[in-house]
Design a protein that fits this description.
The chain is 40% helix and 11% strand. By secondary structure, the protein is of the alpha+beta class. A four-stranded mixed β-sheet has the order 2-1-3-4.
Length: 142
């Protein structure tokens, strides 16, 4: 199993797209480990927890609240792909995900994928728990 310290760091891989995720969420960390295994064709991706101080320094336009609602992928042009749109972007970026790209890119389905992503994101701590001891990483949705 890939440990967080074994993930490519944005400072060490400046040519990689940056995946910003909730590093205090066990479900999220599990998904990131899977994503890294799928990133087998080179270091196309680097990873950083939204709780890392470098995120606020390097991406001041992304608020803590925004990042708690969804993961972001910052591509090499600086464009921010969030949530389901980030997943859709990754299906085009990683050759190992090209097989699922047609399904996620069916015309008229983007709204559905965004809604499904939101539903999972809202419940991510219930799915696998969180790895912080206080309420600093709690999220509150209606």
């Amino acid at each position: 199993m890939i440990q967080p310290s074994e993930l490519p760091d944005p400072d060490k891989f400046p040519d990689a797209d940056v995946v910003i995720f909730d590093g205090q969420c066990n479900f999220c960390k599990s998904q990131i480990r899977t994503l890294q295994r799928l990133n087998c064709c080179g270091n196309r991706l680097a990873y950083i927890s939204l709780h890392d101080p470098r995120v606020a320094q390097n991406y001041p336009d992304l608020t803590h609240e925004m990042m708690m609602e969804q993961m972001y992928v910052v591509d090499q042009t600086g464009y921010r792909h969030g949530g389901a749109d980030a997943v859709r972007y990754l299906t085009r970026r990683l050759p190992t995900l090209w097989l699922v790209a047609p399904l996620l890119h069916l015309p008229g389905t983007a709204r559905l994928w965004r809604w499904l992503y939101q539903q999972v994101a809202k419940r991510r701590y219930k799915l696998a728990g969180k790895s912080c001891d206080d309420d600093s990483c709690s999220i509150h949705f209606d």
